[in-house]
Amino acid sequence: MDPTELWNDPLVRRNLIASALVVATALGLRTIARQAINRAQVDSEQLRLRWMVVARNTSLGVGLLGLVFIWGSQIQSFAISVVALSAAFVLATKELILCISGSVLRAGSGAFSIGDRIEIGAVRGDVIDISLLATTLLEVGQGHQRTGRSVTVPNSLLLSGPVVNETFMDEYVLHIVKVPVNQDEDWERAEQALLEAGREACAKYLEAARRFMGQQSKRHGLPHTTVDPRVHLAMTDKQGELHLLLRVPAPVLERSRIDQAILRSYLKNVRAERAIESAD
Fold first, then answer.
1. Sign of CA dihedral 267, 269, 275, 278
2. Which architecture does CATH list for 78-167?
3. Identical fold at 78-167 and 172-279?
4. Is 240 within 8 Å of 185 (Cβ atoms)?
5. What's the mean pLDDT in 172-199?
């Protein structure tokens, strides 16, 4: 049909004008909300970012609902054709439907939110954006350090594998520091040096972590968790090598610093002991 003929139809012309007004209103509301958030005195950047995402998704939802309301009668007239084509549509948009389903699963389960550090498959990072189809992470590499790269993960992955939320505990987590040693060496002395380094690193917040873990255990009905530093031994596939696994409580946002402090203190302790042995 010629576009001029469509425009001459009073119903189509009215709906097109109303649709343009709805879209303009949604965009205007989003702009006003963004400006208001930017002017607001917010201490947490994560909270500001979360408000930005909510404002964007809300304006998008308002616009879509308005368009559906305006074109409802026309949509209804095509219902029979839509039913006939539904099977082909589902096959063609399978991945899109899975992404939307994954988004619904995330919202319903509360698996993670803006600012959380999560791991999905082989991707690990801090959540900086959540949309209907994808989640954007600021990638975190070795040593809990940000790489500066953003990774966009389709929400369909939430249906095919587990999601690890490293910040489920709001304040403290039990952090693991792994140190390889040779079985032929004095691994017991290395174990003691590592344990002393762990105790030194977490001494100032050990009691606070103990109280927090106790509260979490009661809240979730879990057995009481011991937070005192401890070392576990683990055999490896490499002949003659074993791993010392130090478990210490650590503030959620300070794991990288604690990790480095423990390793540096451990290496200093080992070097000091070797110097004493050489002197003797």
1. negative
2. Roll (2.30)
3. no
4. no
5. 86
